[in-house]
Structure formats: structure tokens, C-alpha cells
TrEMBL record:
Species this chain originates from: Vicingus serpentipes
Family annotation (InterPro entries): ATP-NAD_kinase_N, Diacylglycerol/lipid_kinase, Diacylglycerol_kinase_cat_dom, Lipid_Phosphate_FormReg, NAD/diacylglycerol_kinase_sf, YegS/DAGK_C
GO MF term (any one): metal ion binding
Protein name, entry field: Diacylglycerol kinase family lipid kinase
CC annotations in GO: plasma membrane
Pfam families: DAGK_cat, YegS_C
Length: 292
């Protein structure tokens, strides 16, 4: 028998709408005990997953984030440039990175997928030297991330309700994008900085994005008349968003963005940055379990 791998599950008990509540018995039922020696730890507060990973990564071959993109962000960014591999059991509201990596949305299946997993190295993106994995954003989606964070409930429905309410109040902003070879000034509703192809929930904001191509894509969305919203939504969920005249894509490995507002999100988590934002790619800097 080959040597057992040491695997740590870090569970965010408040992620999504509670799919993770039977996680201990599901791991016991479906994880191959001949292959893995497993440990399970629950987070007690935001930021806890980061602390656990910083202390524990030398002791494990694989650390699995059981949560949404926020938990994946905490675990994954703490594993950059280490030998330890990031696994994901998606139990969040959006699960963008897990969906890009074709990890099952059913917990039992996602655990079974660990038994015969494949790994690959993916790029991570530095935003003013701070890393993210999937997508970061400026403008309307950052504003929604801030409002979602303050909301008393979680889940997709809460997210949609906030998005609709805020849409009617939000004013598009002017941004300057400084690439190596050109500068673009643009007035946009939002700009997404995407390493993965989707936000989550199969909303493909950047259908051409690949996690290991050495590039990041900026997707700018111009203000649009409301009657276009259903068409844009159709395109978003069918990998056709780039065919809209309201959408512009830029592919780069380095850009400076000048933004009038400090509100941003990184992997869906609200953050504030000063108004000059430096974006760089950190190529193939994170080992992940992937079914792509
Ligand atoms: N025990 C805890 N109590 C409170 N907050 C926590 C705890 N553990 C983690 N968190 C925080 O919960 C937030 C949300 O977690 P996460 O993103 O995993 O779930 P989600 O928001 O439901 O999913 P998604 O990001 O896919 O929409 C993160 O900011 C994370 O740091």
C-alpha cells in the first residue's frame, strides 16, 4: 500500500445555506481511509482559516477548504508558493473557483473526487501585492459585496435582492486603465479582474479566462438600459457575455487601474484599496485539486 496522505479539512460553519452540517459523517463515509489520514477543524471567526493554514500547512499534503469563495480565498492565498495542495468542498453561495475547476457541487461527490484526484498549478493574481484566486472587482459588484457583507442573511436570494435594490441607486464611475502599451479611460458600471471564468453560480463573466495561462482578464461593463438586462443575463449564463456591445475585455499580465472609489471585492470579500491599483500575475503559484 502506498503511503497515506495527510489531509486537513477546514470547515466554515456559516458558509452558504448550511450544506456542510453533515460534513463529519460524510467525510467518514466517503473519504478513502486507505489513502488518507484526515483531520477536521471548524473555523470560529472570519480570518481563522488563514491562521490555521499558516500554522498547519507544513504538516499536511492537502488542505481542503469546506466553504464558499471567501473560505477558499483564506485557505488558498495562505498556500501560495508552498508544497501543500488546495482542495475544495464547495458549500458557499457562489463557488466560482470550485465550478471553474469542475468540482462537484454535491458534497458526497466532491469528497469521492478527492479519492482519485488530479492536481495542477494555477496562477494567482496580486492586487497591490495582496493575492486573490478567482475574481476581484471594482464598481457595482464591489458595492454589492459590501452590502452583502452587512446583510443579516446569506445565500443566492439575499445576493439577488441586494443587487436589484442597489442597481437603481448606483452611478457608473470613470476609470483609467494603464497597460504597458496603452492607456484607456472608460466609464463603467463595473470592472471585473478575472483569473477564473466565472463569479460563481455559472455566471461566466470572463468565459475566456484560464487559471494557468499567465494572464488576467479585465471585463468592463458599460451602463446599459434596463430592458437589456434579460439579454445580458442570458449571455452571462451561456458564456456569451463578450458578444455584448456593453462589454469590453482586456487580456494582460500587468495593469494599473486608477479608480475614483476605494470599494473593491477580492474573491467576493469586500476590501478597500487606495485609488491606484496595481495588478500583476503570479504564474503557477498554487497547487490545486482539479477535475478540469
Ligand atoms: N466561524 C465563522 N464565523 C463567522 N464568519 C466566518 C466564520 N468562518 C469563516 N467566516 C467568514 O465567512 C465569510 C463567508 O464565507 P464563504 O465565502 O466561505 O461563504 P459564502 O459567502 O456563503 O460563499 P460564497 O463566497 O461562495 O458566496 C468569509 O468572509 C469568512 O472569512
Amino acid at each position: 500500500m502506498s503511503e497515506q496522505k495527510k489531509i486537513l479539512f477546514i470547515v466554515n460553519p456559516i458558509s452558504g445555506t448550511g450544506k456542510q452540517k453533515n460534513i463529519v459523517s460524510l467525510i467518514d463515509s466517503y473519504l478513502d481511509k486507505n489513502k488518507f489520514n484526515s483531520t477536521i477543524q471548524f473555523t470560529a471567526h472570519a480570518g481563522h482559516a488563514k491562521e490555521i493554514v499558516k500554522n498547519e500547512h507544513p504538516n499536511f499534503d492537502i488542505i481542503v477548504a469546506v466553504g464558499g469563495d471567501g473560505t477558499v480565498h483564506e485557505v488558498g492565498t495562505s498556500l501560495i508558493n508552498t508544497n501543500c495542495i488546495l482542495g475544495i468542498i464547495p458549500t458557499g453561495s457562489g463557488n466560482g473557483l470550485a465550478r471553474h475547476l469542475k468540482i462537484s457541487m454535491k458534497i458526497a461527490e466532491a469528497i469521492k473526487q478527492l479519492n482519485n484526484h488530479k492536481t495542477k498549478k494555477i496562477d494567482t493574481i496580486l492586487l497591490n501585492k495582496q493575492p486573490f484566486l478567482g475574481a476581484a472587482g471594482l464598481g457595482f459588484d464591489a458595492h454589492v459585496a459590501w452590502k452583502f457583507d452587512e446583510a443579516p442573511t446569506r445565500g443566492l436570494l439575499t445576493y439577488l435582492k441586494i443587487s436589484v435594490k442597489e442597481y437603481f441607486r448606483y452611478k457608473p464611475q470613470e476609470y483609467k486603465l494603464i497597460f504597458k502599451d496603452k492607456t484607456v479611460t472608460t466609464k463603467d458600471l463595473l470592472i471585473t479582474i478575472s483569473n477564473s471564468n466565472q463569479y460563481g453560480n455559472n455566471a461566466f463573466i470572463s468565459p475566456n479566462s484560464e487559471l494557468d495561462d499567465g494572464f488576467v482578464r479585465l471585463i468592463g461593463l458599460k451602463p446599459f438600459p434596463l430592458y437589456i438586462a434579460p439579454i445580458l443575463a442570458y449571455k452571462l449564463f451561456n458564456k456569451k457575455i463578450l458578444s455584448s456591445k456593453y462589454v469590453t475585455e482586456y487580456k494582460t499580465n500587468q495593469v494599473e487601474i486608477q479608480s475614483p472609489s476605494p470599494e473593491m471585492h477580492m474573491d467576493g470579500e469586500p476590501v478597500k484599496h487606495h485609488e491606484i491599483i496595481q495588478i500583476e500575475v503570479n504564474p503557477k503559484s498554487l497547487n490545486v485539486i482539479s477535475n478540469e
